[in-house]
Amino acid sequence: MLRRIKYLFSRRKRVVTRFPPSPTGFLHIGRARTALFNYLYARQNRGSFIFRIEDTDKVRSKDEYEKDVFESLSWLGLSHDNHEVWHQSQRTSVYKKYLENLIGEGKAYISKEENPGEGERAEVIRFKNPNTKIKFTDLIRGDVEFDTTELGDFVIARDINDPVYHFTVVIDDFLSGVTHVVRGEDGISNTPRQILIGKAIGAPEPIYAHLPLILAADKSKLSGRHGAVSVREFREKGYLPQALVNYLALLGWNPGTDQEIFTIDELVRTFDLSKVQKGGAVFDEKKLRWINKEHLKKMPKADFEKELKRRIESSERVKDLGWKISDEMMEKIASVIIDRIETYADIDNMITTRDLDFYFSEPQYDCLSLKWKEEPDLSSAENHLDFIRALLEKLPEKKWNEENIRAVVWPYAENQGRGAVLWPFRYALSGRDKSPNPFTLASILGRETTLKRIERALELCLSDSADANKP
């Protein structure tokens, strides 16, 4: 097999791959993976990656879907090399010429047939099948053989000005100089027809590679009923383009090492079509979220801070409460938040659930929440907060950082019980059951705000104690 592949490859000049989507829906991640594999193979062989639009389905093709394909590929960073993007709907004269030539050479003919359901006779153009066996070497599946007799004389055009997909794709591949056809395994059944047409017009046979399907957890073909399936949906869910590219590359391909996190340049160097598996690849969004988090941790801090600020400032909660979002605060909280999220959408969720409120406004809470577990009243919390306040008042502004705050409070917490001391301290600063540790919070909020919030918690404790002692 490898000897035949090397032979076929040696007869080609420059590698040319292509991605020809139909604009009949938003770009599915399965099609995006196909585009990615074509892109990687072309780039690593210093070849060309060609993009065109197959819009022969005039009823289902829509401008919004075509726009989505362009935007999605651009977002993923998969740039094409052809300056002119062909639209099959605009190339009727080209296809007509080839149809006329085939008819003139006796390789195709016009057939008058009844239009199903209408009882009318219409003219279609059928390819005259030579009824031969077709054998080709697939880079993934090895040698594949078809007996074309069972295809009969198949339709290649509904009329002289309306060619079908099987015909147009062969003409465009030929005229674009495509050397490698890398596509989903559902295209295997199209291959014998396309090879026959290619031979009839004198086109060199491209090398084929048919990728495994992307499957849902139940091993069925991934579809909308399983959740998000389009690139735009994952973009809206807050995934990074480099993370989605990374994950799509691993769907059906294994580098043969333990490495799982790749940049696009690393994928270009490492990708190998011969290591693509034959069986379907199961889509696991949990794994995608993990990969996305790894890429978040690798991105420049300034870029994350910019996106964090944009999302907070554009939220309805900020608009309602009029928070002032400073670059200084973004710099302080960025490292804390990036540890608590897997996608950008998690930031939006944190805003909605008010898990960021305490960074920008004084928390509101029931004073009884300051109690640690089963303590009978607030006296213990009050004592601990009072002692912490005294400790922190001695820490000057210029030494106010997480390390020094921890050094001041930790010995007392160790002596008195960490939970009993640190719970009211953290709750006084955040007013939340879950939040960063109190040393981190105090460092972010600053000396003045930290002491003010402890003072307010003490006032609430005293107020509650006074109410409890009333006759």
Question: Explain this structure to me?
Answer:
This protein is an alpha/beta fold. It has 4 domains: 2-215, Rossmann fold, CATH 3.40.50; 224-297, Glutamyl-tRNA Synthetase, domain 2 (Orthogonal Bundle); 300-356; 367-469, Arc Repressor Mutant, subunit A (Orthogonal Bundle), CATH 1.10.10. It has 20 helices and 13 strands. Strands 4-5-8-9 form a 4-stranded antiparallel sheet. The longest helix has 23 residues, at 447-469.
Quick synopsis:
The chain is α/β, with parallel strands linked by helices and 471 residues long. It has four domains: 2-215, HUPs (Rossmann fold), CATH 3.40.50.620; 224-297, Orthogonal Bundle (Glutamyl-tRNA Synthetase, domain 2), CATH 1.10.1160; 300-356; 367-469, Arc Repressor Mutant, subunit A, CATH 1.10.10.
Topology:
Elements: H1 2-10, E1 16-19, H2 29-44, E2 48-53, H3 63-76, E3 86-87, H4 92-104, E4 108-114, E5 121-127, E6 133-138, E7 142-147, E8 155-159, E9 162-163, H5 165-176, E10 180-184, H6 191-201, E11 207-211, E12 214-215, H7 231-236, H8 241-249, H9 264-270, E13 281-282, H10 285-298, H11 301-313, H12 316-321, H13 327-338, H14 344-352, H15 357-360, H16 379-393, H17 402-416, H18 418-430, H19 438-445, H20 447-469
Parallel strand pairs: 1-2, 2-3, 10-11, 12-13
Antiparallel strand pairs: 4-5, 5-8, 6-7, 8-9
